[in-house]
Amino acid sequence: MRRFLLLSLTLSTLGFLVFLASVSLERGESDLLPRIELPTISEIINLELKSSKTCAKPKKYYLAEIDPRFGLTLAEAKGIVDTAAAHWEKAGSLDLFTETVDSGLPIRFVFDSRQAKTQSAQEFSDQLESIAQTYESLSLAYDTSLQNYDSRLSGYKNLVSAFEVERAIYQEAISAWNNGPRTNKNTYQELGQMKNSLDNDWLAIEEFEKNLRLLLASVENTRVALNEFVALYNDQISLYNDTYVANEPFEAGEYVHSGLNRSEILIYQFNSRSHLELVLTHEFGHSLGIGHLDNPAAVMNAMSFEQSIGEIVLTKDDVDALREACL
Ligand SMILES: [Zn+2]
Question: How far is the centre of ligand 1, averaged over its atoms, from the C-alpha of 290 (Å)?
Fold first, then answer.
């Protein structure tokens, strides 16, 4: 990119020289006119390069096209484009860009399989999120029902222990009655009451146990449902990873410089507004003549994996590269 830029400038400088030479020939030389010292070729090249440097005057840009399938309005996209341009201006304290209606560097949002895939990945990921939420609430319900079962079970055990104590007392009383004279009507009645009470207690224990079994069945159902969800979630996660994560990363944007004054920024893919801001900032960097940087955190790194998404921060390497481009 930069090699091409230099070449086109050299050509236009030569054109400029030819032009100067023809002017001086037409005029001819005269002693009455002061002699003009022509700058040497290298001086001209330097002058030309300086005046044509990226930062000499603000670069015009405009939002040329945005496919509605990106789901962004023109105004929203413009806002993000302007923010991206402003990152470089702020970092360099320079007036680098001017937004126009239809002149300068066009920015086009080109919708193709890349963004389509990103959006279906987003939908998939939302579904996974909803499965995970259902799992969370099922899991909570399971824990609660298990705790409930445990406390009911210990209540049941206490009831059974108390029953056994009462029954032992009753059996002792019965033995005493059988071994005794068996004549006291009061004792006989008391024994009858004890038996009735034990029978009632036993019925209550049976009812308690029946409810406990129902509760246990419901706990078990929740556990089965929970495990089914875990299996479903894991399947979906594998499918998601196979479909979207294991694939090769692709270009999210591109700065195309296809000839003199013919360049454009193409945006293909982003998965959030801050990601779009990062991609645009990266492509604006190219438009300033900045190439890729090795620093993985640099906005100008070729693979956008380690840069700060959320709040775009130009690293020192980015700013140094800007200074060099603007020298
Ligand atoms: Zn790049």
Answer: 9
Q: Which domain holds residue 11?
A: 1-52
Q: How far is the CA of 107 from the centre of ligand 1 (A)?
A: 15
Inside any domain, residue 256 = no
- pLDDT tens digits along 224-275: 888 888 888 888 888 888 887 765 666 789 999 876 668 999 999 888 899 8
CA of residue 292 to ligand 1 center, whole Å: 6
Give residue 113 CA to ligand 1 midpoint distance, Å. Answer: 20
| Per-residue tokens: 267 | 């945006």
First to last CA, the chain: 18
**Domain co-membership, 236 together with 272:** no
Among 8-22, 116-130, 293-307, whose mean pLDDT is lowest? Answer: 8-22
How many A from CA of 265 to the centre of ligand 1? 11
pTM, two decimals, is 0.61
Taking CA atoms, 295 is separated from 49, 283, 307, 308, 324, in Å, by: 28, 17, 9, 13, 16
185 and 230 in a common domain = yes
